[in-house]
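Q: What structure does this chain adopt?
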Amino acid sequence: MISSKSIFISDIHLGTKSCKAKRLHDFLSSIECENLYLVGDIIDGWALRREHYWTKSQTEVIRKILKLSEKTNVTYIAGNHDEFIRPFFKYDFQIGDIQILDSLDYDAIDGRRIYVSHGDYFDLTMKIPRQVINLAARFYDGSISDKMYKWLGTEKVINKYIKAKGYDCAITGHTHSPKITPTYMNCGDWTHNCTALLENQDGTWELYYHKTNVTN
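A:
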């Protein structure tokens, strides 16, 4: 059993063939935490517009998250692929016990003030029309490589933002590139890496890779 104060996951991309839903369900069945943060691109609305694809195991992931929300504080932060929920922010919208937000301030055990968002607002590729990205996605079911994001300077833009706003660190998803640095942490994804960020009860942070015999 994985026991942490807070767990952050992102980029599940339910509604795509690349989603590792069975592995994620296995992970969610093995955790105990006070807070579970879904850091964007949980349901892939872009992919579902292109082609209807959904499996029983993806439905089971939704059910598991809803079940966890009965005892765990679950927060859903919208990303670019699930931007369809962003118009509901102004209505203080919730799904059951799950709070829906655009971003949040997180007070870590180690004393740091952390900015949490999906991260797409800092990505220059978001200026490309969604229709063009969807066309490219027909030929490549994946994310832009970490090298491309590094070239675009996405992490540098995030670090500049948090410094200007007085944060000590940022947590995002979006780039599918799991990492931990003193000023920036990324959840990774559940399409390739199957990773989560864990804040342990002693205040340490861990990048967790879920290893299992379950296959998708």
